[in-house]
Amino acid sequence: MKQDYKIKDIGLADLGRKKITISEKEMPGLMSLRKQYASEKPLKGFRLTGSLHMTKETAILIETLKDLGADVRWASCNIFSTQDEAAAAIAATGTPVYAWKGETLEEYWDCTLQALTFDNNLGPNLLVDDGGDATLLIHKGYELENYFNEHQSYPDITTTNSEEIVIENLIRKVHQLNANHWHNIVPDIIGVSEETTTGVARLIQMEQDNKLLFAAFNVNDSATKSKFDNLYGCRESLVDGIKRATEVMMAGKTVVVCGYGDVGKGCAQSMRSYGCKVVVTEIDPICALQAAMEGYEVKTLESVLNKGHLFVTTTGNKDIITLEHIRGMRDQAIVCNIGHFDNEIQVDALNDSDATREQIKPQYDKYTFPDGKEIFLLAEGRLVNLGCATGHASFVMSTSFANQVLAQIFLADRKPEIGLYDLPKELDEEVARLHLNHLDAELTILTDNQAQYIGVNKNGPFKKDEYRY
Ligand SMILES: NC(=O)c1ccc[n+]([C@@H]2O[C@H](COP(=O)([O-])OP(=O)(O)OC[C@H]3O[C@@H](n4cnc5c(N)ncnc54)[C@H](O)[C@@H]3O)[C@@H](O)[C@H]2O)c1
Question: How far is residue 56's CA from residue 51's CA, in Å, rounded to a whole number?
Fold first, then answer.
């Protein structure tokens, strides 16, 4: 039988299994959904592709989806985020997984394609996406087929972005093998559940442009995802990544946090707790005022370039730290990104500049400029917490992944029309409830009178949909 996985080393499976077994205890929400639905098997008969960091927590998500009946194939959503032992443990159970730490861009996109390709060239019915790359590949391939059918030729590749060129080449390769590949698989796709802010931003744009080909669930905007994973997750995993890479002392340093959304709030709080002086940059006056009233300095990046010892981008936007900004930084400044994509920092321009790059160790590079100034870049500008450490801790991923599982059950059960959906607040509250016991938290129960007085159902939902937490 053909080996249906590509990972670093299957010999790591035992280590992966040990870590998974420990983490299962730290993921009470996810494990209780597994228990609740395993006999009912709501995902039975559905082919499911995941494109999400192949960590030990994701292994537990994969095994939950399988226990619920799904036929699963998986790839990572970042070239540096795979924990090879977790991938090995999953491969050893016979689940096709295509992921290893340190993929090239070509390998990465090929892995995504492998995860999307089931036996007999069938595609998935359901997608779990993080950042939208699996969704993007399907939409790009579908568009290329449309273009080819209309013009009998391919459009010119005009982009100079190296990753976009890889994608364009891959969809042309697929087209040469089967000119209708994506048109064949799209009708079978019920929908996607999207994990992160950046992926949701892409989905909103596709929906506005009328380009969305299937239903999409916004997992990120469940309160129990963005107000926990993005905030408390980053509050711990940012410093984990910085310290594993650099071993630098944080106390007393000036840290510039670009962006003060959910991720930025967690990062700023973390840095302050280590005794750093924190400066925030923001474009949104509401977030800027929040940062100021938390006691952070709010400045433009340009005005603090030579003050910062460490720069962290958290915006989900591009060109936040440009090559010119880096030129203005002090000697030995550390630059890293915790937003989804590496374009927050102009890494390509830095690599093409007059600075000499020297790798200290994988995911930790020193750039020396002609004047002798040295700048350190972590994880090549990709997610520092997953590139230089192991991402968020299991407990907070349990809240995120419980939402993923509920969204998948919803998609499979309801098969909604094309459109962008949120999980109902009842389920959001349920996810939180599933995590209280583990922290010995006791919930107060409303009396009937109190419930009537504030006008809510005694058992929830307790807030309006618009409530911001
Ligand atoms: N590394 C992780 O583990 C992890 C976890 C969750 C989310 N993310 C990613 O982190 C990014 C941020 O997510 P979020 O939920 O905090 O989003 P968010 O929208 O809540 O916050 C982003 C903030 O950046 C600000 N911003 C945009 N452009 C800016 C600029 N030029 N200068 C300064 N500020 C700017 C926005 O006003 C906003 O307040 C996204 O890419 C998301 O996908 C990463």
Answer: 14
